[in-house]
Task: structure prediction
Amino acid sequence: MGPRPPGQDVVSSSPREHPGPPASAPVADAQRARGWALVTGASAGIGAEVALRLARRGHPLVVVARRGDRLAALAEQARREHGVEVRGVAADLSREEGRETVRGVLDQLRGPVEVAVLNAGVGTQGAFVDLPRDREVREVRLNCVAVVDLASHVLPGMVANGRGDLVVMSSAAASQAIPYMSTYAATKAFEMRFVRGIDRELRGTGVRAFAICPGPVRTAFHRLGWGKDLPRLMPTESAGSVAARIIRVLDRRRRNPVVSSGPLAPITIPLTGLLGEALSAWGAGVYHRPRH
Result:
C-alpha cells in the first residue's frame, strides 16, 4: 500500500491500515503550531470527551479504540467542529499487534506527538479465583503493558523536542488494595507509581507526566467490565468533568504528577492513610463483596 494522502483517517483492526475518507475541513495555520495528540480508549466516555477538547485546543488527533465505527464518528465530529486532522486507529491494545499498529501510525506522522492521553483500560470485579484467567491477564496487558509500551514510544520524541505531556488514566482505586477488584486496583496502583517515577526522571526536559485519579465516573465502563451500573446514589462525576480537569492540568505550567478528581477525591487517599492498609482493605472488601 502506498503512502496516505494528507488528512486521511486511518481505521485499522490489524497491522494493515485501511484509509477512510479525507478530511473535509482545512487545518488553520494557528492550529498547526500544536503538536499531535494521541488519545487511547477514545470511542466513548472520558476518551471521546478529552479528544474533542484537545481538538478544540488545536491539536491534530490520533484516536485509538477497538470500535472503528465510533472512532469514525468521533473523527468526523472533530474535523467538522474544530478543523483538525484526525487519524483513527481501530486496535486492541491488549495485543502486541494492536500496539504495533499504533506505533506504526505514530511513526508516520508529520510532526511530533505533543500530548499522549493513555486512557484505554478495563476493570473486572469478583472473587479472583472465580474470574476467567484470560480476562485477568488481558486486564494487566491493557492497563499496564500498553501504557508502558506507548509511553516508551512517545516520550523520547517529546524529550528531543523539549516539550510534551503524558497523561495516564489511573483511578482513586490506586490508593489501596480492593478485594473483589484486586487486579483492577493493582493495575491502577502500577500506573500511578509508574507516572510518579518517570515524572521525576523527566525534570528539566520540558516534559511532564500526570496520573489522573478520578473516583466513580458515570460511563459505560462499569457496565462493560462488571456487568452492572454504579449505584444510583453514589457520588460521581461525568466524563466531561474529568476531561475538563485534564485540559486544566495541561494548561497549567506547574508539575503535579498525581491529580485527583471528583466529589470523593478529597477524602479517598487521605482516608486510606488514616485507616491504614489492612483496615482500608477490610472495608473495601465488605463493600465490594458480591451479593448473590
